Predict the 3D structure of the following.
Amino acid sequence: MRRSVAGCLLLLAPLAPLAPLALGACTTVDRPEGVVERWLTSINQGPTGEPERYAEEALSEEILPSPREAGGLDVIEVGKGAEEGGRARIPYRVARVSGEAMHGVAELERSASGEWMIVRLSPEDPTLLVPTGGGERIGRATPVVWVGSVAGGLLLVVMVFLTMRLVGTPPVNSAPRRDP
Amino acid sequence: MRLMEPDPSLAERTPKYRRKVLRLLAAATFFEGYDGFVLAFVLAAILADLGGTESEAGAIRALTSVGAVASFVLAAQADRIGRRRLLLISIAGYTISTALTAVSPNLAWLTGAQFIAQIFLGSEWAVAVTIVVEEFPNSERGRSLGVLTSMGTLGGIFVGILAFAGLGGTPLGWRTFYLVGIIPLILVAYGRRTMLESERYAALRSNRSSLSLDATSLWEPWKIAFRRNIVAVGLMHFFRYFAISAATFWWPYYAQQEVGMSLSLSGLYLAAAGILGAAGFIVAGRLMDRIGRRPSFLLYSAFALVFGVWLFQIHSPLAMLPVLCIAIFFGLGSGAMTSAFSTEPFPTYVRSRAAAWCRNAFEIPGGIVGPLIVGLLGDHRTGLIGSIGDAMSIVLVVVFIPVMFIAWRYITETRGVDLIRLDELLR
């Protein structure tokens, strides 16, 4: 039993450096850009979508009128917006499968519960563009994260090295024997 | 281990027979890839027909992935019941499960059928690789593995081709895709008549001195003689598939949501790159025989890392296609080498269980965790990085460094290894 437990711990050791990745993955951030993207994706899901979680139906109707079929939007794109004092302005671009394209800015406010809600759709703003129009992407890794990724890989190498040392090398003639 | 009657067919392994076996295995693996890809492709149509939410879709995916892990137990039985028998059982099993999926009246039934299908699909892959390793001579083993491992990708692409041809528009809708998956039953009928037990396994079982070898214990590959190889190959499988699975899962999302490509264009790119990617397996197989498994794998991994990171940093649809093709060529193509690593270093009596450990116990969990981590890091609303592209590039760097380290330092080179001599070391 002790050997089994030790064996399992031995095997899990090289996976330990993945823990920071997993912990980082659990960090909470709340980007309004993500809310706009989920809203547009919900619209695009047709009857099974729930866009009313993010905006009133009248706003969703502007993007894709009812009755909505799944896949009614061929393109959904959201860019990095501007946020100030509980309000945000987020650029978006959609294209319906009919070919009609729409550009605009979604305006959001924090509701009483603290959730971002889309309250208004405004015309396109040249200072807030989607990435294909020259604007910034919603999120990106900082240089520190890139350097950290190499360090993380090297840490995994060290853990693998230590694990393999603990596993050791099989002695000569350690193969199971069979009867002569 | 029980004694078998000496196999009179041991002398009948002609090149013609081996080609026939490879065709049978290739066809079986083609449908393994087909069946494995259909669910992801038609899930939206299934939810619309049977009713369901996105969270239920996620649960279906998770449960069926557990089936792939559970296939470990079945895959390991090839050492006990024989490769041929397990192959035929696996083909029959996944075909029947596919037929059950086609007649699903509700999501619970469908999930259960697909869970069972994954068990048989996983074992088919493992035993097919083992058969190729044991039937083909040293000089041809690599290229044969290359052919076999390419078929899974081609089977997946075939789903897209059928969808493009309008299969989803038939009166039966998504169910038609699963009805196509019944075709492998023909392979079972053919295999039963023409296929022999693998040469190495038949030779082992007809040898009286094999009686004392343990052909049943799932822990046999963890004995001191094999443990180092199991740990090294297993960890390499885990890290590699952590990244590969995440990349294949997230690329369509990245292309559509972060690059702004349309659904149809991203589908076209994936089909084109997938076909080229299948060639990556073929080239890998030939390269393995020419320069060795380890150098080939290191080469493929280095290119997979470079082009994989680059792929998820590109924001121009035009530049995307060639980089996608090269990334898939090297990223997926290295699967030919990993299938050799998990089988060739081990003697025949334990080979199937060793392969099951490497694939089902290490690789598949890596494939489950990888996409999850990238999704959490790259989530546009709550992720620490907030970009699937950057999250995927970061993950590629983190895990491919240890992949290459393990291959360089700990993986045994098996080009030219004589499997008969390997078995004779058990003295």
